[in-house]
Amino acid sequence: MFDSIGWVEILIIVVAGLFILGPERLPEAAGWVGRTIRQVRDYATGAREQLKQEMGPEFEQLRKPLEDLRELRNFDPKKAVTKHLFDDPEPAEKPNGYPVASPTPVERPLNPGERAPYDPDAT
User: Is the pTM of this model over 0.85?
Assistant: First the structure.
């Protein structure tokens, strides 16, 4: 809920509350806000549990699209490209079912005095 609020914003709210309410009423107001937030959270949890009990397994089917939307909201193209370029293991077969061609063999280093291979067609 308060993921986007940092310590600076909280400090500004406390100082503003101190000036508006005064030092006598500020602890009472903070307690009221805390109790209200806790009560709203309890109401939301109770409503979710009641829905889960009444709907049964259909509730999970309803939550799946919402979780997919949450994943789309947190989508970061830079992370996705990095993951697919560097972290994705090589598949054993292509999407069409054909096996992936074996990678080219790693060339060994030349021994001392050995000449590099020469390809007259490449020059």
Answer: no
The length of the chain, given as a count of residues: 123
User: Mean pLDDT over all residues of the chain?
Assistant: 79
Q: What are the tokens at 19? A: 């000036």
Contact partners, residue 65, CB within 8 Å, separation at least 6: none
Task: Tell me the residue ranges of DSSP E strands in 6-123.
Answer: none
In sequence order, the 6+-apart residues with CB closer than 8 A to the CB of 110 are: 116
* Cα angle, residue 76 at apex, residues 71 and 77 outer, rounded to 5°: 125
Collapsing DSSP states into helix, strand and coil, what is residue 93? strand
pLDDT for position 99: 65
Q: Which two tokens stand for residue 95?
A: 């999407």
